[in-house]
Write a structure and sequence with these properties.
Blueprint lengths: L1 E3 L11 E5 L7 H17 L2 E8 L2 H5 L11 H10 L4 E6 L2 H4 L3 H12 L2 E6 L4 E2 L5 E2 H11 L2 E4 L4 E2 L2 E2 L2 H9 L3 H8 L3 E8 L4 H5 L4 E5 L8 E9 L2 E10 L10 E6 L10 E11 L7 H33 L3
Helix pairs in contact: 5-6, 7-8
């Protein structure tokens, strides 16, 4: 995938199939759009192009309403590339750009610079200054400018349209299993390893403490997790919380690797959240807390055993008879 930051740099000889949006999280709905984008581009002999904006337009127009990002920008670009997109047009959004009307966006960027032959959008898609662009405008100009508009139906789960807003709400409310279902993968955070207070090593269970780069964290509580360090995965239990039993005063993300003690602490790691075990609680003593952590670890081990069982069963069922 080739990335451009200015539509004027797009190759003049390329005809395209285009979609537009922020695509934060790259959830099931986003992937459905991008699968259609790649398929139509392949069938029509055009090149697939995703147009997105940095920063999110609301950060410029209404900062107080701007949503926190589900994915780090570099992770989003990597995942878009994995979908088989030919070109990513990552446009800088500022006050000057925000003044461009919907019609100018179509004429100058979509039909002009990108030579769009197919444009894929949702039925309620709006764009341009004061939301002056919409599906009706796209369709009205399509005959004059020589492109076809394709409406992509939303992906619906449990009667609700899959959206980035819904995914954010699920993560932040601790409903991580449902969030993972909508994402089509485990929700992950990453960052650097920072020193702790030494309480876990001395009195509880040894932990790695993460300083996260991500904007969204799961709700305070204890989770079954899978940690990636230097490309290798480890089963783990992670506490996101304030550590009330030891009078903690700041939010910590503490991860205990199950049956895989490390020597020297790594510089960084990634944590995938698989399942929520319980709320964080204040216990009468560190001894009682240690007993509870032991129960959490045993529950996590059973979770991974079931996960492995279902994985092997699925592989067996996929084998030809």
């Amino acid at each position: 995938m080739k990335t451009f930051h200015d539509y004027k740099d797009f190759p003049a000889s390329v005809f395209s199939t285009v979609t537009i949006g922020n695509f934060d999280g790259l959830h099931m709905g986003h992937r459905e759009v991008l699968k259609n984008l790649v398929a139509i581009a392949h069938q029509s002999g055009t090149r697939s192009v995703l147009v997105t904006f940095v920063p999110h337009p609301l950060q410029i127009l209404h900062p107080e309403k701007s949503p926190k990002s589900i994915l780090l920008q570099e992770d989003k670009i990597d995942r878009i590339g994995e979908m088989g997109i030919d070109y990513l047009l990552n446009l800088k959004f500022d006050l000057t750009f925000s003044e461009m009307s919907g019609e100018s966006f179509i004429r100058e960027i979509l039909a002009g610079a990108l030579h769009a032959k197919y444009i894929l959008v949702g039925q309620n898609f709006v764009f341009g200054h004061k939301r002056s662009g919409n599906v009706a405008l796209l369709e009205r100009l399509s005959h004059e400018l020589g492109y076809t508009v394709k409406i992509i139906e939303p992906v619906v789960v449990r009667g609700n349209r899959v959206s980035s807003t819904w995914v954010r709400q699920l993560i932040q409310s601790g409903k991580i299993s449902m969030a993972n279902r909508l994402l089509g993968r485990y929700y992950r955070i990453s960052g650097s390893i920072v020193p702790g207070d030494g309480i876990g090593q001395k009195h509880l269970y040894p932990t790695l403490n993460l300083n996260p780069e991500n904007e969204i964290l799961p709700k305070i509580g204890v989770y079954v997790t899978q940690v990636t360090i230097h490309g290798k995965e480890y089963p783990a239990v992670t506490n996101v919380g304030m550590r009330p039993t030891v009078a903690g005063k700041t939010l910590r993300i503490e991860t205990h690797l199950i049956q895989h003690p490390l020597g020297e602490a790594p510089l960084s790691m990634e944590i995938a959240f698989l399942h929520r075990l319980r709320d964080e609680m204040k216990f009468l003593s560190t001894e009682v807390l240690k007993e509870q952590i032991g129960r959490d670890v045993r529950r996590a081990i059973r979770f991974f055993e079931r996960l492995e069982y279902f994985r092997k069963s699925r592989l067996t069922n996929l084998k030809p008879s």
